[in-house]
């Protein structure tokens, strides 16, 4: 059947335009369009711009700017005039459907998709005309005529699809169902054609259309049963095959009877189909009679073939900018549209408030929870810091590397200080010893002379020279004792820092080894990894929430439906708002899913944190030791200059004191010698 000649198609004449007070150029291009796809495009653009115009300028019936608009009625040829811009739209829409029907019928059907699309577009135009415009404008736009046109166009579109299915050798059952649907559409059209009211409206064309449609009903019913028979053959149901082929033959004979007077293309298709069905029936009957001997069931006992509607009326959208082009009246926005836009803005604001209330509530819970956990995702384990020497310590190591004598200089300075300190101490001790010896000799002398000894605990009266030495010595001893404490503390500080300075001056590996680091078990590492994974989930949830909120805000900010409001009737505003707000449904679903996930994420984080507690304590202790060690090493470096300064000050101080002590020692020796000489003279006398 794939080679069967094509059946002719029905197409509609275009209406002719009469008077309309529009610019001549507009009128010429809109009503005298070329009979091709470009003409369809022009009609769609004009229809769309009229849609924009009528929503801004009061050109409707009985409105201030209404003007007479005249078009011829197709079937009677009479001129029909209305003062209503919608009448112009309706006539343009009718012509759009008629032009598509013409292009579909004239197409050679080399590619069935082109014809099929034209017929579906025609059905779409007539459907929009039926559903959105008054039926009282003219006879050719009455409800009955439009329904007839719609079913004719859908039937012809399905017929094109049937032709392609047979060419593609689709499964027999599917081809049968497609063909049955062609029959259903044509039956609906035939009922309209047989209606007396419709017949009177159509005039003489009614008989031609009715004869062709009735013939097609029987013809495509025959095609449907032919393919049901082929399916029975595939299933080896040879009795069913005979009855289906017989039914197909009967229906085809009826079609042939109704085809009298039809063009040669119809006769060719019928002859071709008769050859196919006749051959199939004779072969099937012969095989069953002589080979299979299956009972032939009655046709009404078999399941009827249900149609498969695979075409539809393609919708017309007068506000689609891809079809109508930009709105040339865009700057003409009525006050009502501004008011409606404000109402829509409030609807958007309400939507945003509702969503933000939920987001803020969840964010508050999340923030409080994370604050109580005191978990910083960036430093939950700080393991990275233990793998290298901190910059502050590296800086000190680098500074000491260019001063290799640092430690030696400090040691030498402290050694010099110790030497001077020892010299001062020795001098003061010798002075103290001389004074004590002199005091002992003086006591002895007093005893020899028989003088009463001084009061218990009181030293004998020294000579004036020695008394002065004694006073000076006491003063120096007091100063030395105070300085001795400072010197001891300085040595302690040096001993504390000298080891750290040696470490900082040495290899970096030794410095790194001196810094504490945690010793984690495999279980500890698993606990940390799990915690970080969940913390990453928390951050991912936050980021996604912020991103979705930003997307929602941007969508709301860019959402301007003023153009749609201009072309929408006030009674349809609520419905339009509802439709427009649906664009936010998807992002609201994503946000709801994000918010709902928070409870599970925080529960998982709580469990992970419980396991992390012991690891956290150990890490905190190691981190404290690490920080303390770093601070101690840095302090040692920074103490170096102070130690050198204080060491030098100590040397200067003790050098001065040593000089004074040396002089005082000489003075003490001289005074002791003088006192001894005096005692000898007394003894000699």
Automatic annotation (TrEMBL):
- Name the CDD domains for this protein: BRO1_HD-PTP_like (cd09239), V_HD-PTP_like (cd09234)
Recorded GO cellular component terms are: endosome
Q: Where in the cell is it found?
A: Cytoplasm; Endosome
Keywords (A to Z) from UniProt: Coiled coil, Cytoplasm, Endosome
The answer to whether keyword tRNA processing applies is no
**Domain BRO1, residue spans:** 24-366
User: Could you tell me which InterPro entries the record lists for this protein?
Assistant: ALIX_V_dom, BRO1_dom, BRO1_sf
Specify the superkingdom: Eukaryota
Keyword Disulfide bond appears in the UniProt entry: no
* Residue ranges the record marks as coiled coil: 421-451, 531-558
Q: Name one GO biological process term.
A: endocytic recycling
Assign the protein's first listed, main location to one coarse class. Answer: cytoplasm
PANTHER family reported for this sequence: PCD6 INTERACTING PROTEIN-RELATED (PTHR23030), TYROSINE-PROTEIN PHOSPHATASE NON-RECEPTOR TYPE 23 (PTHR23030:SF30)
Q: What is the protein name stated in its UniProt record?
A: PTN23 phosphatase
Q: Which organism is it from?
A: Urocolius indicus (Red-faced mousebird)
Q: Could you read off the lineage of the organism from its UniProt record? A: Eukaryota, Metazoa, Chordata, Craniata, Vertebrata
Q: Which gene encodes it?
A: Ptpn23
């Amino acid at each position: 059947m794939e080679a069967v000649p094509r059946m002719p198609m029905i197409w509609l004449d275009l209406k002719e335009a009469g008077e309309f007070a529009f610019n001549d150029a507009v009128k010429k291009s809109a009503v005298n369009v070329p009979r091709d796809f470009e003409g369809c495009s022009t009609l769609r653009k004009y229809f769309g711009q009229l849609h924009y115009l009528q929503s801004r300028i009061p050109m409707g019936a009985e409105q201030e700017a209404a003007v007479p608009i005249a078009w011829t009625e197709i079937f009677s040829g009479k001129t029909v005039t209305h003062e209503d811009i919608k009448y112009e739209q309706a006539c343009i829409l009718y012509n759009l459907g008629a032009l598509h029907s013409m292009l579909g019928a004239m197409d050679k059907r080399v590619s069935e998709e082109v014809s099929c699309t034209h017929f579906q577009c025609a059905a779409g135009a007539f459907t929009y005309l039926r559903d959105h415009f008054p039926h009282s404008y003219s006879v050719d736009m009455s409800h009955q005529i439009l329904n007839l046109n719609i079913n004719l166009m859908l039937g012809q579109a399905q017929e094109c699809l049937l032709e392609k299915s047979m060419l593609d050798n689709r499964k027999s059952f599917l081809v049968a169902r497609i063909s049955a649907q062609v029959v259903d559409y044509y039956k609906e059209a035939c009922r309209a054609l047989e209606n007396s009211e419709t017949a009177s409206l159509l005039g003489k064309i009614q008989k031609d259309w009715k004869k062709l449609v009735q013939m097609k009903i029987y013809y495509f019913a025959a095609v449907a049963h032919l393919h049901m028979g082929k399916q029975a053959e595939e299933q080896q149901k040879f009795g069913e095959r005979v009855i289906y082929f017989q039914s197909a033959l009967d229906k085809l004979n009826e079609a042939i009877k109704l085809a009298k007077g039809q063009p040669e293309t119809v006769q060719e298709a019928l002859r071709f189909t008769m050859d196919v069905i006749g051959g199939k029936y004779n072969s099937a009957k012969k095989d069953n009679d002589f080979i299979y001997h299956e009972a032939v069931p009655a046709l009404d006992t078999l399941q009827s073939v249900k149609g498969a509607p695979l075409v539809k009326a393609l919708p017309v959208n007068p506000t689609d900018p891809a079809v109508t082009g930009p709105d040339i009246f865009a700057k003409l926005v009525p006050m009502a549209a501004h008011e409606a836009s404000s109402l829509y803005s409030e609807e958007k604001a309400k939507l945003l408030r509702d969503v933000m209330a939920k987001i803020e509530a969840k964010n508050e819970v999340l923030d409080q929870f994370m604050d109580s956990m005191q978990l910083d995702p960036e430093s939950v384990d700080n393991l990275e810091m233990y793998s290298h020497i901190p910059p502050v310590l590296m800086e000190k190591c680098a500074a000491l590397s260019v001063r290799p004598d640092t430690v030696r200089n400090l040691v030498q300075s402290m050694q010099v200080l110790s030497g001077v300190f020892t010299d001062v101490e020795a001098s003061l001790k010798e002075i103290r010893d001389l004074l004590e010896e002199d005091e002992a000799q003086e006591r002895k002398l007093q005893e020899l002379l028989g003088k009463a000894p001084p009061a218990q605990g009181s030293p004998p009266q020294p000579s004036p020279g020695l008394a002065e030495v004694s006073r000076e010595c006491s003063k120096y001893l007091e100063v030395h004792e105070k300085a001795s404490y400072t010197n001891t503390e300085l040595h302690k500080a040096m001993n504390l820092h000298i080891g750290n300075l040696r470490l900082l001056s040495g290899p970096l590996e030794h410095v790194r080894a001196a810094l504490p680091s945690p010793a984690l078990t495999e279980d500890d590492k698993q606990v940390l990894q799990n915690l970080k994974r969940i913390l990453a989930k928390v951050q991912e949830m936050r980021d996604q929430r912020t991103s979705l909120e930003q997307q929602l805000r941007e969508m709301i900010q860019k959402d301007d439906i003023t153009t749609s409001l201009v072309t929408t009737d006030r009674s349809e505003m609520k419905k339009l708002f509802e439709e427009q707000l649906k664009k936010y449904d998807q992002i609201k679903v994503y946000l709801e899913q994000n918010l709902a996930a928070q409870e599970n994420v925080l529960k998982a984080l709580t469990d992970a944190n419980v396991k992390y507690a012991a690891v956290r304590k150990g890490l905190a202790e190691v981190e404290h030791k690490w920080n303390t060690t770093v601070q101690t090493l840095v302090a040692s470096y920074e103490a170096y200059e102070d130690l050198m300064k204080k060491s030098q000050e100590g040397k200067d101080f003790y050098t001065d004191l040593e000089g004074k002590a040396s002089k005082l020692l000489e003075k003490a020796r001289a005074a002791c010698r003088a006192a001894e000489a005096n005692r000898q003279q007394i003894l000699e006398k």
